[in-house]
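Q: Please design a sequence for this.
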């Protein structure tokens, strides 16, 4: 849905699913999932590691006290940008593998080889600018809102010496992820279209500004949020679960809240 323009106004969540199953069978619903799983581990690890390190450096410049919301936002933004910069070529591969036709690529390595041969190394960073501009508010808002909500719960329940349970962490993650998605989704849409457009032979490749103008002129402002619902259905539970795992791993490793 993200890559369909005004020529596919009839495409919605269910028709998109039916079309994918007709074209490539039930297995087509998991296209690109292998590389998605491959990239999510280093991406999450780098993001959370960078976030903790940047928070530590910010605290080192202060004379005690916790971080304020804007400081968490800065730490989250820098952490997200760092992780995305390192793993970005895998994002491009994931998009191409997800959108490929049946039989177009024999696998991840073949997809990478074809992109490199036909389009060069720069193709692996197509859409990097809108991605980075989008990840700054997304990661900043997501991590800042999550930790602010979690700390507010801890302060409110300090007398009970209770740790936030799974439901509390899931709730904080859901709210923070929703806020981050709403703030950054148009740039994520533009990034995905830029990643995907090179797969269509013979068509001119639009820049970030060109994509924005094309969407506005052909689809209007609502076009900037095309595919938001299925994206929420995917991202919110994934991000919320990752926060639960993150907090439990911190506890196992002895990292203080």
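A: Design:
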């Amino acid at each position: 849905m993200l890559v369909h323009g005004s020529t596919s106004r009839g495409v919605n969540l269910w028709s998109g699913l039916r079309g994918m199953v007709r074209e490539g069978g039930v297995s087509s619903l998991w296209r690109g999932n292998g590389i998605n799983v491959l990239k999510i581990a280093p991406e999450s690890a780098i993001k959370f590691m960078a976030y903790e390190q940047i928070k530590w450096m910010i605290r080192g410049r202060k004379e005690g006290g916790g971080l304020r919301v804007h400081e968490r936002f800065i730490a989250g933004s820098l952490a997200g940008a760092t992780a995305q910069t390192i793993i970005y070529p895998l994002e491009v591969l994931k998009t191409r593998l997800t959108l490929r036709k049946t039989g177009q690529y024999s696998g991840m390595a073949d997809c990478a080889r074809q992109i490199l041969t036909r389009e060069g190394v720069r193709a692996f960073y197509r859409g990097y600018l809108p991605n980075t501009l989008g990840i700054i508010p997304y990661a900043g808002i997501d991590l800042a809102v999550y930790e602010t909500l979690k700390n507010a719960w801890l302060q409110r329940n300090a007398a009970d010496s209770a740790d936030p349970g799974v439901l509390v962490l899931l709730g904080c993650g859901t709210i923070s992820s929703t806020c981050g998605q709403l703030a950054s989704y148009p740039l994520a849409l533009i990034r995905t279209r830029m990643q995907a457009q090179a797969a269509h032979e013979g068509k001119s490749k639009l820049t970030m500004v060109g994509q924005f103008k094309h969407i506005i002129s052909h689809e209007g402002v609502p076009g900037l949020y095309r595919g938001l619902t299925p994206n929420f259905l995917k991202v919110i539970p994934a991000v919320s679960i990752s926060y639960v795992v993150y907090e439990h791993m911190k506890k196992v490793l002895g990292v203080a809240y």
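Q: Thanks. Anything notable?
A: The chain has a mean pLDDT of 83. The chain has one domain: 32-253.
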